[in-house]
Amino acid sequence: MSGLSGRIENLSPEKRKLLAMLAKKKKQSEPEPEATAPEAVDETEIIRDDQFFSLETGVFPEKENVRKLYNAVTNQFNAGGFGNYAVFLNWGYLPNDNPTFSRVTLPENVINRNPTRLVLELIGDTPLDKNTGVLDVACGRGGTVTVFRRYFDVGTVNGLDLSNAAVAFCKKTHTWPDTHFTAGDSENLPFADESMDVVTNIESSHCYPNIEKFYSGVWRVLKPGGHFLYTDMLHTVRIPQLEQALQDLGFQIVRKRDITSNVLLSCDEIADANTRLYADGNNDNVISNFLATPDSRIYKEMQAGQQQYVMYKIKKPERGDHVG
């Protein structure tokens, strides 16, 4: 044994202990070297063009990218000063000469007035009571669930969303009894057969790669006599095919409404204001289409009739009912 380690080894136990104490004291007195922090990379921070369904090409993004898109939306909303009030992601509804079916009259100063109106129009005259079990597919930040809880006396309400960040926000924010939120895929509904009285889906299905699989899942989880309340912007030429897919499953389309003009009126009023909820650095075209601002391609396609915003009241017949 040689060198420093050898000399230390030859010291008495008492001197070795004293030397260790002096070394420890010296180390504590020395400044810590400045750490080089790794660059923070959060893939959900910025909204990108590969996270959004392309109406022009018909290309669907990877579901993981869709999840990141809605995680980004939730994270940016949460970072703003009004995050807890930003619970809706739909484009809203403004009344005009079209028939209206909402049974609730909102006060003028209600927060999120137009998006709330859209949900109320969708619920319309659907029978609800304290035993009605509700599933909102693609619940986002819980806006539709909020409408059911604030304006109606219903039973258990479930919200499902692909975005784990949105589900975490909902669990923290919407704490009504018998209200549950689950992270999951709209095309693979994680609920039991015939377990729901009402299923809602708002402004989401146009980006499902397999929309027929979603319809089939809704049929499975709905009880006989239950209602599927469904509204979305859809390609005009594709609407007959989608309606046929619903009818082939056995659904009855009780009522169909073209509410494109009502949605465009709402976009005129609120879309630009909604952009203030988002952080800088996002893809401007994506945000514009996501919010259907008047200068966006989506808005112009609805205006030209290439896209229709349709609203359906659909029923799963009771057992034994004749479907004609």
Describe the fold and architecture:
This protein has a seven-stranded mixed beta sheet with strand order 3-2-1-4-5-7-6, sandwiched between helices. Strand 4 (196-202), helix 7 and strand 5 form a beta-alpha-beta unit. With 324 residues, it is an alpha/beta fold. The chain has helices at 3-10, 13-29, 63-79, 113-123, 143-151, 164-173, 211-221, 239-249, 260-274, 284-291, 297-304; strands at 134-137, 157-161, 179-183, 196-202, 222-235, 252-258, 307-315. The model is unreliable at 1-13 and 22-44 (pLDDT under 50). The chain has eleven helices and seven strands.
Judging from the principal axes of the Cα atoms, what is the shape? globular
Give the strand tally: 7
- Strand-residue proportion: 15-25%
Largest sheet: 7 strands, mixed
- Which strand order spans the largest sheet, edge to edge or round the barrel? 3-2-1-4-5-7-6
* Class of secondary structure makeup: alpha/beta
List the helices and strands in order. HHHHEHEHEEHEHEHHHE
Rounded mean pLDDT score: 84
Q: Which percent bin holds the helix content? A: 25-40%
Evaluate the radius of gyration: 27 Å
Low-confidence stretches: 1-13, 22-44
**C-alpha termini separation:** 98 Å
Count of alpha and pi helical runs: 11
Short description:
The chain is of the alpha/beta class and 324 residues long. It is built from eleven helices and seven strands.
Layout of secondary structure:
Blueprint: H1 3-10, H2 13-29, H3 63-79, H4 113-123, E1 134-137, H5 143-151, E2 157-161, H6 164-173, E3 179-183, E4 196-202, H7 211-221, E5 222-235, H8 239-249, E6 252-258, H9 260-274, H10 284-291, H11 297-304, E7 307-315
Parallel strand pairs: 1-2, 1-4, 2-3, 4-5
Antiparallel strand pairs: 5-7, 6-7
